[in-house]
Task: structure prediction
Amino acid sequence: MAKSGEQFKTEHGVFDQFTSRALFKLSSENYFEGLVSPISIGKESNVFSAIKTDKSLVAVKIYRLETCDFNRMFDYIKSDPRFMSLLKRRRQVIFAWAQREYRNLLLAREANVNVPTPLAFKYNVLVEEFIGDEDGPAPRLVNMPPKDPKAFFEKLMKEIKRLYKANLTHGDLSAFNILNYDEVPVLIDFSQATTKESPRFQELFERDIEVVCNYFNKQGLRLSSKTVVKDII
Result:
């Protein structure tokens, strides 16, 4: 049975009224039954595993309404034609940020990019596919370097090329938002992903490539970000 808004608020005292309401609404629509345990705790968002009635898991990402850097969010989102009418108001920007991640993940999935499947969003809460197994969530690349950096990098480039072909760039790609799921890269955290319609697209794309190349060069590869950019384009 779905929990009430007050139960969510009581059991997870950090949740404000909007968040409790969103969790209750999503639970009542059978996206999950209850939160299980934290996957990651950050300055701007918390991610929990959540259980469904069939005992399978989903991931529930909750953007913090009071501590999110909504100025940074607005800087990314203001040039997105999908959100041109958005006013610079904290909660509206954060709600749009969750919606933007949902829509960007949908675009990435349509392009066969290895990302979590987005399932639903409400206010500042996003429900998506749980990436992991019975032992727990898949680790981030920063916590689990690849056993074979060259092979992992080549797999990652296929995902980035698919994104670029779909006129998307991640916008903040690093070892913190690439999962190492049994030596297969899964890209996460798509709220700042940017379409080619944005004047910042190329800048963000090239920055993503530079950050990724720097990481893999530390893993023993010898990569030139300029060469990689040319190869993708």
Notes: DSSP finds seven helices and eleven strands in the chain. The chain has two domains: 5-133, 137-232. The longest strand covers residues 34-41. The helical segments are 5-11, 17-28, 70-77, 90-110, 149-165, 201-218, 225-232.
